[in-house]
Amino acid sequence: MDxxxxxxxxxxxxxxxxxxQISGGDVPTLxxxxxxxxxxxxxxxxxxxxxxxxxxxxxxxxxxxxxDHERIPERVVHARGYGAHxxxxxxxxxxxxxxxxxxxxxxxxxxxxxxFSTVAGNKxxxxxxxxxxxxxxxxxxKEGNWDLVGNNIPVxxxxxxxxxxxxxHAVKQEPDRAFPQAQTxxxxxxxxxxxxxxxxxxxxWIMSDRAIPRSFxxxxxxxxxxxxxxxxxxxxxxxxxxxxxxxxxxxxxxxxAVKINGADPDFHRRxxxxxxxxxxxxxxxxxxxxxxxxxxDSFPFDVLDATKIxxxxxxxxxxxxxxxxDRMVDNxxxxxxxVAFCTQNVIPGIDFSNxxxxxxxxxxxxxxxxxxxxxxxxxxxPINAPKCPFHTLQQDGHMAMMNPKGRVxxxxxxxxxxxxxxxxxxxTKGFHSYPAEEDGKKLRVRxxxxxxxxxxxxxxxxxxxxxxxxxxxxxxxFELSKVENxxxxxxxxxxxMNVDGVLAKKIAQGLGLTDMPEASKPAKQPVTDLKxxxxxxxxxxxxxxxxxxxxxxxxxxxxxxxxxxxxRQALEAEGAMLEIVAPMVGGAxxxxxxxxxxxxxxxxxxxxxxxxxxILAGKGSEQTLAKHPAARDFVSDAFTHLKFIAYTExxxxxxxxxxxxxxxxxxxxxxxxASAVSSFVKQCAALRFWKRESVxxx
Length: 698
Ligand code: HDE
What we know:
Elements: E1 11-13, E2 19-21, H1 58-68, E3 81-90, E4 109-118, E5 133-141, E6 144-151, H2 164-171, H3 187-195, H4 200-206, E7 221-222, E8 227-230, E9 236-245, H5 254-263, H6 267-277, E10 283-291, H7 293-298, E11 318-328, H8 332-337, E12 350-351, H9 356-373, H10 455-462, H11 466-481, H12 486-496, H13 501-510, E13 550-555, H14 561-574, E14 577-582, E15 587-589, E16 595-597, E17 600-601, E18 612-616, H15 622-626, H16 629-640, E19 645-647, H17 652-658, E20 668-670, H18 677-683, H19 693-697
Parallel strand pairs: 13-14, 13-18, 14-17, 18-19, 19-20
Antiparallel strand pairs: 1-2, 3-4, 3-11, 4-5, 5-6, 7-9, 8-9, 8-12, 9-10, 10-11, 15-16
Helix pairs in contact: 2-3, 3-12, 4-10, 11-13, 12-13, 16-17
This protein binds CIS-heme D hydroxychlorin gamma-spirolactone 17R, 18S (HDE).
């Protein structure tokens, strides 16, 4: 029998990617789950060389059995996600506001795990879907796990949790055809949204560039609901939680999002992985908006209504600490897939408000984890287990790994001392619910204070720069153009008339609506004079420098070595990266005769993957790039996506062929002289040359 032809290779790959030869004794012996050493993992046990497989092959059966059960149900929402470990560091003691242990001591670090996600798409969907992003943080504090399960948008579609299944059914793929997935651009979503005026504020946010972030590193996070912080005297302060990215906000443009999804559907995952693996740890600051009952009563909207924000101008944000993500998971399934966030995971000093959405979530998350992870013992999985000591009297169930030791598994008990007593409640240390006074009739009603659905939607729109307002209108037109039913389009436009007449007309025009519908009748007449709020714009809150961003340099043979070196140094000094794209996978030869290695082959590294580009064509190889269709796409996309473009003289034939030569503007910088490099890198901090948009649109 020939066994050598099926035996594994003798060369193995080391952790750093290096290869080395092994002999049999260097690696652990493969075993079954029972620890039995395996002699042959290539051939199942059969009767004769060409005969049937024997049922007795326990190794084969165990292997296939386990494989058959590898999947668990994906999350019903937020199925696609990516997580990382890190820490939260407290700037100052907040003991005057809360007893929450993690906020007591300045400089203290609390381990955290964060999972970012999209909402609507299935687990295998693409990263750049137009969608809300989840931003869920588990803090492993010394007094238990606190989960802050937030989003990158501070408001939500609905006001009452009872509508969540309807919202999610409407947004996900339609039940008969099972498409489209990971997008809101279909009839069911807009039918539901147009019938739910309370969703209008959220619609404005998801039609803005907030829903197509450049990366997780450049987006904000929000706890959305009003929560309570409670101090040692029992005083409660209302709080809204914010995450502010240290690198500033950044989004892509829609056409770019569509193309990134093709070029690299894992764009956001890769970005987080690469930045953490290269030691560029992303950071956010935790901001608190703190307010009391008096403010809550005087605020024109209900602080329990998750479709409303409290503008930062009304209640400034107090930055109290920073979150740093500095370690990727060892195993995606064990950690990112099995992590179980629960809004009801709070610790002493943090409590809920009566927001009806939050109240509903407090039921849903625990329930969903049982379905997903299959056992009430999901808290025994290391990613979910507290890192502080914990003692429950819960026992048994599927996969129980931490049953109480000893005789006592009930409370109260009289087995005292000598380890026999088991854990006891502690009125001093234990969690106390804030004793809010509640009374009233049992009713199914929505408070009148929740009735204004349009004023803040308008405030959001008015807070955007004209460029961003244009994007909101374009997205509505795009999304509604995919809706087959004319009535839905018209109904949506008539709701938007209550936000802004000009916006609604622009959308109607874009959709070719011949008769402008009347404004729908609002539940409460909106106000039109809420002051615009600067923090609501992405462009107004961009970075101050190019840190954490990436330039894609398209090079060809003869490229100026000094120019490449200077550009690389300037970017490194800025904390930014350079990635080389060349027509050949190996790279291109510079004018000094050395090979400049390429990270991407032209075509595999389109310009949508970069924040700015440099076309460093070499003298003598002008036509190599000009003739290459992927090179033409590279520059024309970069130009259309309003990127800063640096170029050498030899790039001009490519520009001619790409049809942009006559349109070159101040966002396109000649780099014939290496001294121009530093001003180009400075210019890139603006991220995009927005002025070009009017030219491109024409
Ligand atoms: Fe969630 N949500 N949600 N949600 N949500 C889930 O829990 C739910 C809502 C959010 O990375 C589910 O473990 C209800 C608002 C994030 O694992 C589920 C309602 C906000 C994640 C669930 C909401 C969120 C989830 C599905 C309406 C922003 C991903 C899988 C009352 C503040 C967490 C799971 C992760 C996940 C229910 C609304 C954020 C079904 C009933 C508002 C970031 O339990």
